[in-house]
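Can't paste images in this forum, so I'm doing it all in text. The chain is below; anyone willing to post the predicted structure tokens underneath?
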Amino acid sequence: MSSVSYGSAHILHAMFDGLRYVGWLMVCGFAVVGAAFFGGAALVAGWQKAGPPARRRNDEVAREAAEGIAEIEAFLAGQPPEAAPPEPPPAPRRNRPPAAGEAG
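Text version of the structure:
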């Protein structure tokens, strides 16, 4: 004699079927993500090999930026080092209220 009733056995099988379905969805999802990741990387590598070489940026903007950075560095090198800022004065303390038995 079985200790599991027909209704609970039916529910148990339905739960296992659902779990198996979710498991297959996860396996298929991992396969699709992996194929997209590695396949995309392979496509990009192929396109980079087939296409023209990457151009270096040697235009007017890059030259002007390099000159501006050199000017800023030269200016900062000529500045004297700053002195440490003075310490702020101590915060004012409030007077304690008189304790029990003290004259105020």
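Residues 8-75 form one domain. The longest helix spans residues 6-50.
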